[in-house]
Amino acid sequence: MHRDPAGDVLAAPEDAAERLTALVEGLSGRWLNGSLSLDRAQKLLGDAIAVELDRP
């Protein structure tokens, strides 16, 4: 378990990497088959990265 300087629990970097990798794979598949626009995929990925880094 990882904690920040304030003592709050943080996600393990390896877990965050796996979540983001899975998201990228899913988004790229949807983009490639035409069911998701590039702009929407980029927005979703950017939001997910911000959540993983815990910053808006």
Q: Any overview of this molecule?
A:
This protein is mostly helical. The chain has one domain. 64% of the residues lie in helices and 7% in strands. It contains two helices and two strands; from the N terminus they run E-E-H-H. It has helices at 13-32, 38-53, and strands at residues 2-3, 9-10. The protein has a two-stranded antiparallel sheet with strand order 1-2. A hairpin with a 5-residue loop joins strand 1 (2-3) and strand 2.
Compose a concise summary of this entry.
This protein is mostly helical and 56 residues long. 64% of the residues lie in helices and 7% in strands. The chain has helices spanning 13-32, 38-53; strands at 2-3, 9-10.
Largest sheet: 2 strands, antiparallel
Overall number of domains: 1
Q: What level of helicity do the residues show?
A: 55-70%
Order of helices and strands: EEHH
Query: How much is the average pLDDT?
Result: 88
Large-scale geometry? elongated
Question: What value does the Rg take, in angstroms?
Answer: 14 Å
From the helix content, strand content and strand pairing, which structural class follows?
mainly alpha
* Strand order in the largest sheet: 1-2
Distance between the termini: 23 Å
Low-confidence stretches: none
Annotation, overall tally of beta strands: 2
- The percent range for strand residues is 5-15%
Helix count, DSSP H or I runs of 4 or more residues: 2
Topology:
Layout: E1 2-3, E2 9-10, H1 13-32, H2 38-53
Antiparallel strand pairs: 1-2
Helix pairs in contact: 1-2
Annotation keywords:
56 residues; mainly alpha; two-stranded antiparallel sheet
